[in-house]
Amino acid sequence: MKLLLMLAFAHIRGRLRQMTVAGLGVALGVGFSIAMAALMQGSQQDFVRQLVDAMPHVEVLDELRRPAPQPAEQVFAAAEFFGLRPVDDQRGIRNPAAVEAALRTWVPGQIAPALRIQAVARFSGREAGVVLYGVLPRQEAQVSSIARDFVVGSFSELAAGGNNVIMGRALADKLGAALGSSVSLVTGSGQARDFRIVGLFHTGARSRDEGEVYVALKGAQTLSGRPNAINTIRIRLDDPARSQEVAARAEIQIGQKAVSWEEANQAVLEALTIRNVIMYTVVAAIMLVAGFGIFNIVSTITHEKARDIAILKSLGFPEADMRRLFLLEGLVIGAVGSLLGWITGYGLCLVLVSIPIKLEELGGATRLPLAWSLLHYVLATGFALMAAGIAGYLPARRAARLNPVDIIRGAT
């Protein structure tokens, strides 16, 4: 094996310029693959983090996973019913205090009850449809990411008493209102009440900044005419990865629908999976292109060293050694190119992460999110060595089949 390595390096030194070009091709391929993987995975992690932070990890709703059977179905064996009038039943989570107490005994995280209703915000002749949340300020601040995104004020302002409201700065600008303005909130039932703006938040998500308002839970219950009612329990877990497990257990225990953040964003997560497949396909394609350079170099060496192959085989070297010799040459180019690619990829990542990007929605300058992972280097090297091995094996197999007698005689 040592002799084969010496011969491989001798062949490489003989065509050092071409070998250098092939190695640089591998290095660039590995480097750009590392940088691209770091950028794509970093952007994905940043997107998922923002997605997780923007909503409760688990939300218990006043809904059933499957519709309850109609009472008439239990009495009459009819195939279909017409003209049934449903019982007028105000929706909401039954026995909310008992449900919340039961969840607190085992849920590894923070819990906050809320009443969510549709409303219209009116100010100075302008109006906008909003989702109104009635919350307990101290508990909501522990489960909501909005608590970190206040421009002025905080959730604690709602606990000061009175008819106070917190809304997005974008919604206030849309209505022409400001801190201290009195805004009228009207529900679908026609109930209306004036609230004073005591806080403004800015999350960067337009749907929230223009479509959500928060008041004290008692104020929302009075406005909707539903005293002591809640229709959602919002849960923020210590470990978001356990959201599906917690949601399933909560749904079995309570009997009402519990939705994890993964279930609520299933389509988005599936799209991210497809994007990962595309990313690794592109990485493999880059390495395949780099492999063509190695194939050309090793094929040229095989053609030029035909007489050397004949001499080696006549001295007793078997075909397997000939295959190993030229395969080693391809792998050496791939290994050296991969090491240079590590340096190139690391440098590209440093350059990318240092580029400032100004995004007004995120509050000023930010930087590209990159994921620093050894796995990217290992995968890029694996693809490179695989491409180098295949590129080296094809001419190596051809070299091993050469007949030394034909070569020495000058036969074609």
TrEMBL record:
Pfam family, one: MacB_PCD
Bilayer disposition of the protein: Multi-pass membrane protein
Domain ABC3 transporter permease C-terminal: 281-404
Subcellular location: Cell membrane
Stretches assigned to the MacB-like periplasmic core domain: 24-250
Keyword Protein biosynthesis belongs to the record: no
Transmembrane segments: 277-298, 331-355, 375-394
Subcellular location, principal: membrane
Record keywords: Cell membrane, Membrane, Transmembrane, Transmembrane helix
Source superkingdom: Bacteria
Family: Belongs to the ABC-4 integral membrane protein family. LolC/E subfamily.
Protein name: ABC transporter permease
Provenance organism: Paracoccus benzoatiresistens
Lineage: Bacteria, Pseudomonadati, Pseudomonadota, Alphaproteobacteria, Rhodobacterales
